[in-house]
Known about the structure:
Layout: H1 6-59, E1 83-87, E2 93-97, H2 109-117, E3 123-126, E4 132-140, E5 150-157, H3 158-161, H4 163-210, H5 226-260, H6 270-287, E6 291-298, H7 301-308, H8 310-326, E7 333-338, E8 341-347, H9 351-366, E9 371-372, E10 375-376, E11 382-389, H10 396-412, E12 418-420
Parallel strand pairs: 11-12
Antiparallel strand pairs: 1-2, 1-5, 3-4, 4-5, 6-8, 6-11, 7-8, 9-10
Amino acid sequence: MKPLNTRGRIxxxxxxxxxxxxxxxxxxxxxxxxxxxxxxxxxxQLYARILAAQIAHAxxxxxxxxxxxxxxxxxxxxxxxxxxxxxxxxxxxxxxxPAAAAKEESVTTALLEAMASSGxxxxxxxxxxxxxxxYAAQRIRSDSPSPNVLHVLVSVPRTTLYGxxxxxxxxxFGGIIVAAGLLLFAAWYGPEIAFLRRLRALLGVTNHIRxxxxxxxxxxxxxxxxxxxxxxALDDMAQALQKRDADLKQALRELSxxxxxxxxxxxxxxxxxxxxxGRDLIRARRAVLPVAAILFDIxxxxxxxxxxxxxxxxxxxxxxxxxxxxxVRGSDIACRYGGEExxxxxxxxxxxxxxxxxxxxxxxxxxxELVIGERRLDRVTASFGxxxxxxxxxxxxxxxxxADEALYRAKENGRNxxxxxxxxxxxx
Length: 428
């Protein structure tokens, strides 16, 4: 059996909590109906007593007759479809009202027996037409010496006598049914309106946050209601997580940059070079495009450091990095290769383009005017080696190695110059 969800459990609890009140109302309605019917029977019996007293008083007058006793019957007091009859002790009908109600001259034996066993209380019996009626019989007291005992018999159809009581009972039961229906409606839809919608909103936001969407919010209105406060707490938590996530991503970006960035020159480092140079060569191979590598270092940098100090050496390295940044494109890779060595990778660059770029950077480095305090530093020069893919090398390691060999040749040839790699005959 499938377990009830939250809505079903709440509805069940509400119904169970209200069930005693509904049962009590049902019991009270039943008791009220019984009391109303008992009261109607008592009124019918009282009516019979009043009639008996009036008939007794009327028949004491000279010339009075039971045939005229019907004139004494209070018409307004008799219920609709009510019948009145005066009987002798044998059950013979001496007078009746209304006179045209029936033609029988006497009542049935069963009715006489019911009268005898009623003990003066109203009783139920079936009349000669098969209709269930409520009867009330009352002896007519007389001071005359006649041995004949007379009774007045009043009857009303049970449906008529109990009509008012039944209507009241039905109204009570109808009210109970309506109340039960409203209760069930409230038990089913009340929780939905009251808090289940907000619970679902909370669950939805929680699922979004769990899935990584930290922008999700409940956006509940400002209220002292507990679910609203819980929603605001969840929104605050999501906002804090979003800020922490943004801070973490920023920290990761900074850490990633630190891992691949030289802290002094702010150029990319050797690790970045090897991570991306291979990918550039793969793209170049697919597109059948050339790639150039320019490797250079600062001439006599150790002697410069020893002469002017490490502060001056750092200034030279940072100034050279600035020159590089001014001469590279967005697609180029510019790295500090190590110490005073730098490397620039130029995608889609031919030999002439690479040489022209290297010459431009060489001239800009040579033209640098560096000052520390009031001291003007010596002129700085650099030697350059150029290698090409796929002309000279077919992989990243070979491309850098051949550029390094070209750099070595530039230094051998007097420094402060650009040299393009030339393969030895044994390598062709």
